[in-house]
Amino acid sequence: MEVYSSGSILLTGNTTRIQMVDGFIAFIREVNELLQKEVDLSPDNQLVTNMIRRLSLQLRSHYLPEEVQAVLSNEYIRMNQRNLQDKLSEAEFLVELGDSLHISKSEDSVLDNVRRLSYWNIYMALVSEELSTLRRITRADDQKEKSRIVFVGSGPMPLSPIILHLIGDVEVLCLEIDPVAYDASCLLLERMGIGNKVTVVLENGSDFDYSSYSRVFVASLVRDKLGVLNQIKRTSPDSLVAVRTAEGMKRIMYEAVDESQLKKQGWRILTRTWPEETLVINSTLFLERMTTPAIPG
Predict the structure, then answer these.
(1) Residue 285 main-chain phi, psi, to 5 deg
(2) What is the pTM of this model?
(3) Residues 154, 148: contact at Cβ < 8 Å?
(4) Sheet holding 198-202: strands in order across?
(5) What whole-number distance in Å separates Cα of residue 136 and Cα of residue 154?
(6) Both 131 and 270 in a single domain?
(7) 3 pLDDT exceeds 50?
(8) According to DSSP H, which parts of 118-258 are helical?
(9) Residue 56 is part of which domain span?
């Protein structure tokens, strides 16, 4: 069942609330069962691509808190949300890998081709808001504002690190755990001519020594975010950390950071960005280590 992508799913026409909630849950179930069944989740599979596009558009809509609660508390959603996110992550990885390899082989300007990507504006909006927030936090600390950024989980198409460098005038060190993504991103950055400004190392963010860095970004698709944050706290306790998360209905697609666990680990949320409705899905938490011990519980 198609759910309108504008407005509240519970206030569309004369359809009752329970019918609309059930319709949206049925659609999510349809997406999940398709992704679990299909072997090919690459862009070559148009059925998969179109279904994910529909889901993505609908998750960018505005929903009331009771609508979000009704969907996310559904038993089927709770039981299958992680598996759905894994498949969506795999599909996103394959899109970025295909684009990265294709652009790297092109004879045209690599940067021009990257800017033509359908998701370039989404990343521009997300990273621009993050940089603006970061500057507000660090404006009294010029040394930190100019320091190199570590980006954990850059993927095969490292758009966020590229944009951080281009509009933030900063060097970025990318940590990537997947060898295929590592090779593809290194080639892309070399072809773009910024391989000395945006570098990639094959490294698990949960094992990396952050002691030489004071600013760290953690991508939304990084699964062990709490493990990464623990390692940052151990090796660079004064770091400012930006970790991407998901709010409201967008948690269907991306894993949300457990904010109660952040406090237990000794992190304080300084501020956050909110997704730009109809465009950006992710939001970002900006964290610093608490100066006093976290209260258990």
Answers:
(1) -100, 135
(2) 0.89
(3) no
(4) 198-202, 172-176, 149-152, 215-218, 240-245, 283-289, 267-273
(5) 24
(6) yes
(7) no
(8) 120-138, 142-145, 159-168, 179-192, 225-235
(9) 17-105
CA 193 – CA 74 distance, rounded (Å): 49
Residue-wise pLDDT tens digits, 190-229: 999 999 999 999 999 999 999 999 999 999 999 999 999 9
Q: What is the DSSP letter of 243?
A: E
**3-class SS at 47?**
helix
Q: For residues 49 and 44, what is the distance between their CA atoms, to the nearest angstrom?
A: 8
Cα distances (angstroms) measured from residue 22 to each of 120, 128, 251: 34, 37, 18
Give the C-alpha separation, 251 to 272, whole Å: 16
Task: Give the up-direction half-sphere exposure of residue 75: CA atoms within 13 A in the CB hemisphere.
Answer: 0
Q: What is the pLDDT of residue 245?
A: 95
Count of domains observed in the chain: 2
- pLDDT classification of 108: cutoffs 50, 70, 90: confident
The CATH number of whichever domain residue 283 belongs to comes to: 3.40.50.150
Closest to 122 measured CA to CA, from 190, 41, 53, 191: 53
Domain boundary among 105, 133, 149: 105
Tell me if residue 120 falls in helix, strand or coil. Answer: helix
Instruction: Tell me the backbone φ, ψ of residue 271, rounded to 5 degrees.
Output: -165, 180
Q: Six-digit token pair at 280?
A: 């950006």
**Is the domain of 132 the same as that of 57?**
no
Q: 133 and 254 share a domain?
A: yes
CA dist., res. 31 & res. 98, Å (int): 22
Same domain, 60 and 201: no
Tell whether 296 is covered by a domain: no
Half-sphere exposure of 68 (CA within 13 A, CB side): 14
For residue 289, which of 260, 269, 273, 272 has the smallest C-alpha distance? 269
89: tokens are 């992550």
Residue 44 amino acid letter: D
Are 257 and 127 in a shared domain? yes
> What is the Cα–Cα distance from 265 to 39, expressed in whole angstroms?
39
